[in-house]
């Protein structure tokens, strides 16, 4: 009887623990063989007891896990999110035994060291997010991890907010990556950009310290469709051929570059697929009319937040409003809406034109009247008898004596 009691108590305890784990985490049964488990924001320091379930996606974001965490028992894992924890190091045992890991997010974990051992014998890690770990690039294994991931065919790498400097990123680090399609290098301290591969589709180089966007890094970027280059504090110049080889470029953001006030006339000449350009929050005062043929291809053109000098040299932009979205909220430097300024200017032009036509018609009548008057005067002066009236005979002379 006592054994039965303890058995029932143990079963109740196990069920209560499982029930507690389900309350702590949020299991979602995608299919019978694939679970999604969300344990984010729970202040956890120990793994929940779901290792024997087919958990494919495990989200442990914003907890209290440290370097001792070991996920080797979670054999089905394909996606792991450990961001915003206190991992410090990623050791060999962290992912030992996981053979199908495809996506790994260890951003903002105060990482100081990451070993490349976890890449060996594993299937392709398609997404690797190391963002927000500024001490990690000083680790001797950092480049080995990035190179190892690229060599195995990683598709997406996030290296944002890592205080990366030029000497920590070799110029050809990404150049031979045949499968890399997404690269985030934003919010670093890069003065020179590395060379980018043809496979790259989306590139984020925002919030860095380069002064010129040069042709060199993009010379082989034929597959790039979206370039994000906003909020670069020192950017003042764009090479005329910087985007020349981006045959598939669809969208580009140059927003927030406070020192950028000029773009070359032919900068988008070769980007025939370009449909969206953002120049929001820069220092543009005017744009060359030579850009009009390139901008006519756009679907969206964002120009807000610039000190535009609205005058007749900018009138060509008003013509884009019927075909291009994004111009309705643009304001001139004095606060006048772009549309209102050119609507008023257009109305003023019509008033001037109408007044000019009225003046020309009046002048025409004045000249006509003067011409008729002068013609009649000349005719009368040619006939000395015109003062005698119309009935007077001009054949019989009339003598008028002036002697009194």
What's the topology here?
Blueprint: H1 2-24, E1 26-31, E2 34-38, E3 55-59, E4 79-81, E5 89-90, E6 103-105, E7 113-114, E8 127-129, H2 142-151, E9 156-158, E10 182-184, E11 202-204, E12 212-213, E13 226-228, E14 237-238, E15 251-253, E16 276-278, H3 292-295, E17 300-302, H4 315-318, H5 338-381
Parallel strand pairs: 2-3, 3-4, 4-6, 5-7, 6-8, 8-9, 9-10, 10-11, 11-13, 12-14, 13-15, 15-16, 16-17
Antiparallel strand pairs: 1-2
What does this structure look like?
The protein is α/β, with parallel strands linked by helices and 404 residues long. It has a domain of 143 residues: Ribonuclease Inhibitor (Leucine-rich repeat, LRR (right-handed beta-alpha superhelix)). The protein contains five helices and 17 strands. The strands form three sheets. Strands 1-2-3-4-6-8-9-10-11-13-15-16-17 form a 13-stranded mixed beta sheet. Strand 16, helix 3 and strand 17 form a beta-alpha-beta unit. The longest helix is centred in the C-terminal third of the chain and has 44 residues. It is elongated and about 145 Å long. It starts with a helix and ends in a 23-residue tail after the last helix. The relative contact order is 0.04. Pfam families: LRR_8 (PF13855). Keywords: Leucine-rich repeat, Membrane, Repeat, Signal, Transmembrane, Transmembrane helix. InterPro entries: Leu-rich_rpt, LRR_dom_sf. This is Leucine Rich Repeat.
Outline of the structure:
The protein is an alpha/beta fold. It has helices at residues 2-24, 142-151, 292-295, 315-318, 338-381; strands spanning 26-31, 34-38, 55-59, 79-81, 89-90, 103-105, 113-114, 127-129, 156-158, 182-184, 202-204, 212-213, 226-228, 237-238, 251-253, 276-278, 300-302. It is 21% helix and 13% strand.
